Hints:
Porin, 8 strands, 75% strand
Amino acid sequence: MERAFRILAIVAILSTTLLTVKAQAPYKNGFGISAGTMQALSFKTFGSDHFAFQLDLGTAFVTTSGRFQNVELKKVNFWTLELNPNFMFEGHLVGGLYGLAGLGGSIGYCWSDIQYQGVFGLTLTRNDFGKCGANAIVGLEYKFRSPLAVQIDFRPGYGCLFAKHFAAHYFDWSANLGIHYAF
C-alpha cells in the first residue's frame, strides 16, 4: 500500500510540473463516445481553467477469479455496465495538445454465467453482481480548431465484484480512445 501511495505521489508531482499552467481550458463542455476496453458515452466539463470532470457510462468485459459459494473459481468472464466519474487536472503542452492526470471511481452492475462443481456435478448458473472500484487516469487530449477533441487515456485501478455468495478483487484497468464534440 505504501508503494502504491509513493507511485501515485510521483505521478501527481510529475504531471503538475510537466504541464504548464499558462493556458486556459481547451473548451467548456464536450459530449462524445469512448472506445477501447470500455465502450461508453462520455461527458466532460471544465469547472476552471485546469480542472475537468469527466463522466463515462458504458460497458466493459472483465476476466477475474473469486470465491463463489465457498468454491474458488479461476478466470470467470463478466460483463459490466458501469458509471465512471473522473476528476482531472489538465494542462497545455504544445499547440492543441493537453496532458491530463487525475483520480476517479466506478460503480455499476455486472453479470456472468458461472460454471462450478456443485454437489450433483457441474452446474451452470446466471448470476448478477454489484461492482465498485477506484482508478487513476493519465492521458493526452488534442483539441482541433474545429469543435472536435480526441482523448487517449489509461486508467489503472482496483475493482471489486460482489454479491451474497461471491467476492472478487482484481486489477481493474482500461485503455480508451475518446472523441468529444466540444461546445
